[in-house]
Specification:
The complex is a heterodimer of chains A (417) and B (159). With 417 residues, chain A is of the alpha/beta class. Chain A folds into three domains: 175 residues, FAD/NAD(P)-binding domain, CATH 3.50.50; 113 residues, FAD/NAD(P)-binding domain (3-Layer(bba) Sandwich); 86 residues, Enolase-like, domain 1. Chain A is built from eleven helices and 27 strands. In chain A, the strands form seven sheets. Chain A has a five-stranded parallel β-sheet with strand order 3-2-1-7-19. Chain A has a five-stranded parallel β-sheet with strand order 9-16-10-11-12, with helices on one face. In chain A, β26 and β27 form a beta hairpin. Helices cover 22% and strands 22% of the residues of chain B. A two-stranded antiparallel sheet of chain B has the order 1-8. Chain B has a two-stranded antiparallel ribbon with strand order 2-3. Classes of the chains: A alpha/beta (417), B alpha+beta (159). At the A-B interface, α8, β22, β23, β24 and α9 of A face β2, β3, α2, α3 and α5 of B.
Chain lengths: 417, 159
Amino acid sequence: MQHIIIGAGPAGVIAAETLRKCDPAASVTIIGDEPEPPYSRMAIPYYLSDNIDEAGSYLRDPSTHYSKYSIELVQERVEKVDSKAKQVTLSDSSTRNYDKLLLATGSRAISPPIPGLDLPQVHSCWTLVDARHIIELAKPGANVVLIGAGFIGCIILEALVKRKIKLTVVETGNRMVPRMLNDKAGGLLKQWCIDKGIDVHTSCSVESVKAADNGEVQVSLSDGSKLPAALVITATGVKPNIEMLEGTDIKLDLGVLVNHSMQTSNSDVYAAGDVAQGIDFSTGNFEVQAIQPTAADHGRIAALNMAGNITEHHGTLNMNILDTLGLVSCSFGLWMGVDGGEQAELYNPGEFQYINLQFDGDCLVGASTIGKTQHIGVLRGLIESRINLGHWKERLLKDPTCIMEAYIASTQELGYS
Amino acid sequence: MQKSLHIDPGKCTGCLQCEMACSYDNTGTFNPSRSYIKVFTFHDEGRFAPYTCTQCDEAWCMHACPVDAISVDLATGAKIISDDKCVGCKVCTIACPFGTVNYSQATGKVVKCDLCGGDPECAKACPTGAITYIDADWTGYDRMMASAAKSLPSAEATH
């Protein structure tokens, strides 16, 4: 049995390990187009802040791990998938045949249609190559403009500030991380950044980037500002890498559509991670989540099914945790609430503290927090186990901090309920 | 046979000796806020519940770690954090549905119960037998975890 995995990120590597465990005799190959050993994009902010070297971002120890588990690593780009011939074509024109194929091709950074984003001073922050460019240009004292205050933009703020640059953040939304936090929470995050000396422009867009005489660029904003910059970082979202699948019988939407077995519309082809449009726990719809825990779950479940161990995927919970200059925020599931649901809220702007719990009936279905780092995983537990909170819901409506107590009392035999 | 922590909330008096012992062993300070075991207080019911990692088989934290910083201690079954590898990204703290992996501002890393390498200080410090370290089959932990985890739906083998 020849298993081919396209993509060397977490979904691909975890799938390869799972295949090796379930099917010791199979041949397992990972084909990835980046020049480094398999690494984690999650670690890039810590590389940018000099907390780790590049090797600290590696998913596994490349000197021993892959050979120990007989996982073949191929560094080439897959140009074409021929799902009828069950063959992939690589950038060196060679071909590989597969019995089962896993698409774990991930996603890539996208740029908005702004003139000048092709200048050499403009970089996204998605790959180790990007990170090296940023390190080179973000010299102490340099003016840096960050386009986008989403998850990636916010998570690299600390690293940028540590590099002693002068930072301006431009976000089209009215607050920070608008896709993860509501007005109050996103506003708190904005205030936190302003207090730390960052120039934050929300409800504002970049109109153009032009080359300047001194080797730098000039960034023009919709509010009329013109900013000099030695480096412009675009952090305006990612999209799944599905181009090599066009013209195949594999059904595509925003990403690659997969069923409860992580199988695509072609029964020998599976998809996992950022590229897969799989089931969302909260909505039951097929969605692209592009988060690390989902990539890990997808990779494992896809591999189990590829190896013939039929395993059903019941949906992954969309969740994020973000450290913005030391202020930790997180969101889970339907953090924006549901029609007819109730919410519990604690808003303490002076302390940069926020908790928002969203209920559907007696069940927690979503949550977002700022400034809380202890026991936050239990929000996942409460949501995913669909615990009927009973009178604990009333307590949470009065005091949303008592999430652990609600969980313990609802799941353990303490002599009361 | 592997052992695990057995917690009997009915015997807990809320004295916090476990938190003191845990924080001292792990951080060198008597600081309950840095303890890996936490006693939750139920004022209305007049009850206390010590709570820490159950070293669950699913190991949600370990699978979610993007840099291979969490591994299984083969001697004890504990899921342990490698400070050398942990970058402090906190993904494991939201992946753990029991809320028992926490970020430490003091170290910039995540922390969790490691069973003290097989000789847990919390159990030794507990004066009432609310926390004991006994053969895994006897703890009832499996039952407790099953009740909490059975509806966690990410993956269930159907056969």
